[in-house]
Amino acid sequence: MKLPGLTLLALGLAACAQASHINYTTVTGYFLQDESTTDPSTFDFTTTNFGLINRTYPSDGDGGYTRTQWERFYNQVTELNRQSPSHINYKVLFLGRHGEGWHNAAEDYYGTPSWNCYWSLLNGNGTATWHDADLTKTGKKQALIVHNFWQSLLNKQRIHAPDSYFVSPLTRTLRTANLTFSGLTLPRGSPPFKPLVKEYLREGISLHTCDQRRTRTYIHNLFPDWPVEHTLPETDELWTGVRGETSAAQDVRSKTALDEIFRGNGTGLFVSVTSHSGEIGSLLRVIGHRSFRLNTGAVIPVLVRAETVAASLPTSTPAWTVSAHCTAPPVTSVQSCVCPSTAVPVTTPLVTASL
């Protein structure tokens, strides 16, 4: 008997229960994005050095000023780990949102209310396809801007390249990660760019067809050299087109992904995560960071402290939700979705996407 995706998720989370758990906190004072005075809507990571604050560190020493800001920051994180007990460690997460996808363009075109209650539940509109959306031309340009910015910092500031890479299994994130990191001239000894495709780094699972991933075979054929976590099933067992994750359910999933990253051997101090707006928001909640919405293609680093506590946490399976939607294009409304009188709202899927 095939178990529904929600049951599989609950079983997977229960199986991950440990005799210990990890508490996460954001270490502030290093990045502008941590400060309450920084406006996410106007923040530009490319003009602010990824938001790294120009300051001194206790680890600078006499020769600190011969190194760049990023070299000194990396040394500071190294020292934080060296001076900490074994149950505490620090990593810098580079959280990158994918470039603009066709679903983003469609939502802008139709407006958010109409998008949420009708158009997002279709595979496309005959002109564009947004089921597991690919990048638009603009989205590809955004990813290349990040590529060029990384290369500039590697060349001029000798920033430490990511020690490990992780990516959501959805097409728009796979494409973004590839455009961002492929072809970079990395320092000698840097690990090659071969991101691990992780199921639990995907976007919040809603009724929208853009949130249904394609098959494991599709992902492998798209980037054959990239590792895919062994637990990722061939087909998407989480998306149903009927139930969607609540924020609480998504945060449980996000913490599971973070636990695997922090417990993993060889992940290093600088970790790249290419994901989605909603999922990055969830990760920020898990690590106790202030809410900070990223524009498409944007990246923010966050310094995270992880403390392993020798006590198990009770497993939780927060409820998912069902939403009603129109069965025909809604009446235009700026504030809310209004279904036509002949299209009574339903809670059954409009399409069964399987690509």
Automatic annotation (TrEMBL):
User: InterPro entries attached here?
Assistant: His_Pase_superF_clade-1, His_PPase_superfam, PGM_Phosphatase
> PROSITE patterns attached here?
PROKAR_LIPOPROTEIN
Under Gene3D superfamilies, the record lists:
Phosphoglycerate mutase-like
Any one GO MF annotation of this record: phosphatase activity
Keyword vocabulary terms for this entry: Signal
What's the domain of life for this entry? Answer: Eukaryota
Q: Name one Pfam family in it.
A: His_Phos_1
Return the GO cellular component terms, semicolon-separated: cytoplasm
Q: What residue range is the signal peptide?
A: 1-19
Protein name per its UniProtKB record: Histidine phosphatase superfamily
Organism whose genome encodes this protein: Aspergillus avenaceus
